[in-house]
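hey can u check if this looks right to u? its 127 residues, i copy pasted from the old doc so theres a chance i mangled smth
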Amino acid sequence: RDGELHPGDDPTAVQWQFIPVGPIEDNTFFIRNKKYQSYLDAGHSNYYLHCSDWKLGLGRADDLMKMWVVKRTAERNAFWIVSKGKGKFLDTHGVADGYVVGQAQLWGDGVNPGSYPWNLQWKLVAA
């Protein structure tokens, strides 16, 4: 949306559930949209994301593309989210004042946040 807490007519469409992968994978989650029950998936492109109707526990080869590592930044309540399968940051691609960017993308190497680390930071807010 616009970076503000205005969820629109159906708040569940912009809510995401973080489901822990398991005790061995520290800070690693499947991220599922609450309304559509589909998973954030880094699968078929190096840059663009999609949601898939994949079911947990099937053990498919592309499971890594649906796993996301959440890393704490130095900022309070700010996190980097990195695709386990692609090794890239989930990137807001920047939001200029007064503009809305319509799509998050994958960027970088998942380690070095580059010159604009704030474009890679996500604030997680309880619904």
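The CA atoms of residues 71 and 80 lie 5 Å apart.
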